[in-house]
Amino acid sequence: MTTALIETEGNSAIANEEVGLTLALLYSMAMRECDPTEAMEMRDINLALICEFGETMALLMEAEERPLEIDQTTVKRSRIRVKRILKDFHLPLSRHDGERLIRKLNDAERVLSDTSVGDKSLQDALSSVGLAAHTWHTVLYKELKAEESYLVEEKGGVPASTLLRNVEKVLPSNVLNKLSSQVIDDIRQACRCLALGCNTASGFHMMRAMEAVIHAYYIKLCSPASFDPLNGWAAYLDQLRKCCKTDKGRQTLELIQRIKNVTRNPIIHRDVMLTADEALAMFGMAQTAIGFMAEEL
Q1: What are the tens digits of pLDDT across the range 218-274?
Q2: 3-state class of 5 per DSSP?
Q3: Would you tell me how many other CB atoms lie within 10 Å of the CB of residue 31?
Q4: Which residues neighbour 1 within 8 Å (Cβ) at sequence distance 6 or greater?
Q5: Which DSSP category does 172 fall into?
Q6: Which in 119, 264, 287, 292 has the greatest CB count within 10 A?
């Protein structure tokens, strides 16, 4: 079964009899092609649209009992919202009934725009809309109920949207512009793992990113004859201490040494698993060190 990731930022569902449907609709995100353990290609869920859709369905289902309370503007707005739901969500089981509701809304709009139509024809058209809405609601609810979804909350004060999709907001642009695509990708994966609670994996990705930047920092400061990687962080630190001439550089090396001793070395042991707080601390320290080194690249 596919899984879904939904970010929430304080949005609330509407308080009416369709709140169950509104919340259940979130589950349809699970049917998108997104695997959080792999590429994590995700699309945003528009929670405002879902709330509007809940209001729309509640109103349309009332049309079966009180058809004359539905006007042409309501029909047009409802059709737009239903179309957006069908477009934005993969609903193979209930799509047919959703499209049938759209056809009934089209019929109702034509009747409403025809001033020669009597009340009986108008009532029949709007009652058909209500029936179609009830039918779709029943099938849609069953389809969504079978799916799973998860809320991704902020970590360390960083919004989930930033961790999942906007690595550009984690580091300033003047730093990102000096980093290789491989380093940026590792930082991106570290952010995503952090958002999903894969704490140890986040640490691994951040240490990979940092090691690549340390190598670039070594090339820049020491201008070695060979650009081949050295044998571990200790070797890099030994060489960098010989080349570093500034107080800022020495502070950077002290930070790298601390990260090596406190976080990088322990994490390579298979029995070490990072907690959320430890992963956040490692991320923050590495983020700072990468920023310091990038300033001199």
Answers
A1: 999 999 988 998 888 999 999 999 998 888 889 999 999 999 888 777 777 777 888
A2: strand
A3: 20
A4: 30, 147, 148
A5: -
A6: 264
